[in-house]
């Protein structure tokens, strides 16, 4: 299967070390500049239907399909996880930027078809991850062309074990929150975001169980590897997992996806990076900490 190269009308965005995106390095071979390289953010082509509107639907939304093999009880959780990213895209001026659809049981296309972005499931004998979300970007521009997500059946079993261990109600269900959180994380990779392992600095151990403070999150970025959030004895249980992108994620999406970002807007956004909610550290930072291997 071949995919046609996109046209050259894509608006690139130069990456910055303070905001965690996968990127493509391009080199201007004809410049006298001593730094001829630019890292271009990996992102989807989103164009406002109404360019004048502060909030507009895109001409073409990002579409993710939920594989038909997904257990019935899990399907709505995956849909919520995919569409939760709309909260972040609204910050960038887009309404309904990402749409979830369920693959019909009688679909005549395969979930492996590169023309469809699909949240798929695998049952591996020794799963190393709960999921992963690779994507294909245009090496010349960073434009994302295709993505697929594979999540492990083991993660679903883990969610049912959380229910057994910690109990659940329809209002506070660790299985639902875990699957939503996992899906938001993996979709986050496919819209370009890298890990952010600094996200749990946001709240203290008491505040993290106060929903008046946390809202539907627990940490500043869904791109962390947060374990289940269990209240110590004597404290009312808050959210087990975040079910929305965090403040850092929304800021990062605005940085990459807001159309026609001016230099001034770019500087103002980047200036926020010193605040705790926008703290960022990725794989290299986490794995390279002294005392850890
Ligand atoms: Zn990840």
Structural class from helices and strands? alpha/beta
Residues in helix, %: 25-40%
Distance between the termini: 40 Å
Secondary-structure element series? EEEHHEEEEEHHHHHH
Describe the structure.
It comes from uncultured marine bacterium MedDCM-OCT-S05-C259. This is EcxA zinc-binding domain-containing protein. Residues 177-286 form the EcxA zinc-binding domain. GO terms for molecular function: metallopeptidase activity. The protein contains 8 helices and 8 strands. Helix 1 crosses helix 4 (174-190) and helix 3 runs antiparallel to helix 4. It has a single domain, classed as 3-Layer(aba) Sandwich (Collagenase (Catalytic Domain)), CATH 3.40.390.10. It starts with 22 loop residues before the first strand and ends in a 6-residue tail after the last helix. Strand 7 and strand 8 (144-152) form a beta hairpin. It has 293 residues and is α/β, with parallel strands linked by helices. It is globular, with a radius of gyration of 20 Å. Strands 3, 4, 5, 6, 7 and 8 form a 6-stranded mixed β-sheet that branches. A two-stranded antiparallel sheet has the order 1-2. It has helices spanning 75-83, 86-91, 153-166, 174-190, 211-214, 247-257, 263-271, 283-287; strands at 23-27, 37-41, 62-66, 98-102, 118-122, 131-132, 135-137, 144-152. Residues 185, 189, 195 line the site of zinc ion.
């Amino acid at each position: 299967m071949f995919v046609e190269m996109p046209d050259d009308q894509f608006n690139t965005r130069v990456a910055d070390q303070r905001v965690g995106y996968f990127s493509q390095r391009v080199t201007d071979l004809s410049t006298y500049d001593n730094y001829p390289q630019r890292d271009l953010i990996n992102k989807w082509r989103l164009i406002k239907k109404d360019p004048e509107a502060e909030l507009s639907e895109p001409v073409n939304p990002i579409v993710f399909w939920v594989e038909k093999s997904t257990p019935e009880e899990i399907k709505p959780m995956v849909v919520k996880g995919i569409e939760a990213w709309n909260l972040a895209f609204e910050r960038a001026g887009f309404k309904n930027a990402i749409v979830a659809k369920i693959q019909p049981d009688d679909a005549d296309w395969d979930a492996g078809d590169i023309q469809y972005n699909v949240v798929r499931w695998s049952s591996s004998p020794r799963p190393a991850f709960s999921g992963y979300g690779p994507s294909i970007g245009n090496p010349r521009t960073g434009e994302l062309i295709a993505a697929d997500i594979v999540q492990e059946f083991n993660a679903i079993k883990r969610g049912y074990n959380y229910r057994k261990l910690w109990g659940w109600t329809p209002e506070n269900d660790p299985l639902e929150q875990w699957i939503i959180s996992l899906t938001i994380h993996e979709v986050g990779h496919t819209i370009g975001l890298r890990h952010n392992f600094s996200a749990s600095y946001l709240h203290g151990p008491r505040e993290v169980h106060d929903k008046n403070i946390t809202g539907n999150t627990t940490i500043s970025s869904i791109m962390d590897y947060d374990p289940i959030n269990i209240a110590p004895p004597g404290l009312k249980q808050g959210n087990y997992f975040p079910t929305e992108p965090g403040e850092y994620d929304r800021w990062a999406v605005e940085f990459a996806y807001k159309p026609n970002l001016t230099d001034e807007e770019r500087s103002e956004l980047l200036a926020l990076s010193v605040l705790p909610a926008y703290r960022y550290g990725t794989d290299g930072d986490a794995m390279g900490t002294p005392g850890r291997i």
